[in-house]
Amino acid sequence: MPPTGTYRVQVRPEFPLKTTAELADYLADLGVSHLYTAPLLTATPGSEHGYDVVDHSQVSPALGGAEGLRELSAALTNAGLGLVVDIVPNHAGVAVPSANPTWWDVLRRGRESEFADFYDIDWSRGRLLIPTLADSPEALDDLRVEDGELRYFDKRFPIADGTGEGAPREVHDRQHYELVNWTRGDSELNYRRFFAIVDLAGLRVEDPKVFDATHAEILRWVDEGLVQGIRIDHPDGLRDPGAYFERLHRAAPGTWLVVEKILEPGEEMPDWPVAGTTGYDALAEVGGVFVDTGTEAFFDTLQHHLTGGDTSWQDLVHQTKLHAATTLLAAELARMARLAPEIEGAPRVLAELAACFPVYRSYLPFGSRHLAQARAEAGRRRPPLIPVLDQLTARLRNPDDELAARFQQFTGAVMAKGVEDTAFYRWTRFTARNEVGNDPADFGVAPDAFHDANDERRRRWPDAMTTLSTHDTKRSEDVRARLAVLSEVPGDWTEVVRRWVRTAPLSDPALGHLVWQAAVGAWPISRERLQAYALKAAKEAANVTSWTKPDEQFETALRAMVDRIYDDPALTSEVSGFAASITPPGWSNSLGQKLVQLTVPGIPDVYQGTELWDFSLVDPDNRRPVDFAARRELLARIDDGWVPPVDETGAAKLLVTSRALRLRRQRPELFGGYRPVFAEGRCGDHVLAFDRGGAVTIATRLPVGLSRHGGWGDTAVSLDGHSWTEVFTNTSYGGNRLPVAEILRTYPVALLVKEK
Predict the structure, then answer these.
(1) Which candidate in 160, 391, 441, 723 could, as Cys together with 313 as Cys, close a disulfide (CB 3.0–4.6 Å)?
(2) Which secondary-structure segment (H or E) carries 82?
(3) Would you put residue 31 in left (φ > 0), alpha (ψ -120 to 50) or beta?
(4) Residue 551's Cα: distance from chain center in Å?
């Protein structure tokens, strides 16, 4: 059976398996059916996330090892819970070679290593390039030979048998690897990476031997009943995701499999043997339906006023993707181009096609239409390239062509680096919509489109995961819910933000607008957190400063801008006052989107801590410690009969979360269908409601507009005449026509259950 609800915990050395096991009773009380953990295999020493696995044969000792996993499994079993684990098939951690035995052997023995084909290395280019040296011609002078190893400051590398005599440079020149300037990684590297991260080397998991070696421990957990579900990280990096899922499905029959497949709006997923995606598509739909789509023009005008530019989202994305393809991913681009020596200008054309690709990748023959779209768009943008475009696309349509296989792996990385990690930080019109799996040009989602999407999920992927916050979201669900209020007060927002940018100007006005939205969206936020976010955002946007080319003068000015928010009493008061004005309607949006996410088709996931208000920004801000003791205490009070108000404690969200999750776990038969429920009356457009087959969700849309209309008035929903119990207030209702003002008297949301 699939889960009825999951709870994501960032298991890490500071919060190991033993500590996680102590949450079992709380999670059972909360109402989930499964704990969902970050990766558990041994990762790079000091790793805070676990996605840089170095040893696939054991549970990380830093997390508690095999004994820790057994303790966790026992605690979950005693609480009646299952376990879903996150796995990383695409890449392995190589930042500390001595920690990764397979990588160490490849460095020591080169092509003769039994693991030479374990990693996706282009051995035709000669020695394996390791970009680790300082940006200095004399960097190799700092090499030394110690204890049978070649060392560069604190970095250690193996020495091949019989090559250790002589000066350090001479020893280095005999190795199967070459240590090079760290800046050469993006352009000259000869092993595939995860995106542009040289410390994460691509695995050839398409090779059955590699699959077996990297999955044996995980499959043992499944065989022993320790694990009931698997979340697959970054499948788009794999050579053949479909074949991988088939192999994993056969190896772990009956296991709930969800994949981190990021679907663009309107994109369909191939018919793989999995339960569905990890829910970014649902996130975009749920968040978007709480946005006032009628105010888009106000934000277009504001963006133009603040930035002076008119670049469209589509043109910006093309620009940032082309830059990513030709700079950050230049090594991968060059490797592809070498497969087409007969085509003049292949690198330029491949980069253009990738920049025009409308989705993350295709899975030939599935998705070939996306290649056709890219070809048409590239031809429109670059007519002189049309003959070469036709030559290349003829090969890229062939799933048996090595060039086509690598191009499919390439486009996903281009999308991720160009859009998620760059364009999202430059296009700052309305950042509530700048989220993975969404097109920020889609200002919001109409209720009819929302209902259509959920009916489609019910029919095709009923056991897919749904989510609102993850470790990868750019801002937490409650920040986005509060920012959605801006769409209802565009005039107020325009007035204050124009005044603020004059008070604390920044030479990159788009970034300034991003920071102001982050400030009001997460307020009250500490100076240190906002400073860290602003600096990361600036480096990701890479308009003025970046990770590789920092601009100290700009970063100093950025810090001064953020400091002004806290050091100028008048400005502090204004920011605080404006944030306070949008906070109550933000609470309404938060409760609404949470209840909707928990009850739409799919399996809802709750990211750690978000059962209370959580105003986090991008990683690492969203990995901060969670106060579980406070959550236990509040849940106990609610269970004792306390009816929490909608206020700053967030206990109302805990009530909504726990009651919805418990109902899904206890009465899954109520959640098999999907039927929109429409309200009648003057404020009917402010109701979002649907019937899952005996459980009816009712949520408030656009609460500011509702208050301007003076409240619900005569608005009512028509049900089927049965008696209903509202879950959050334990109130009974009867009749065909239920007044919304009465149902939503206590909370802006309701969950009605048909009485037996």
Answers:
(1) 441
(2) strand 82-87
(3) left
(4) 28
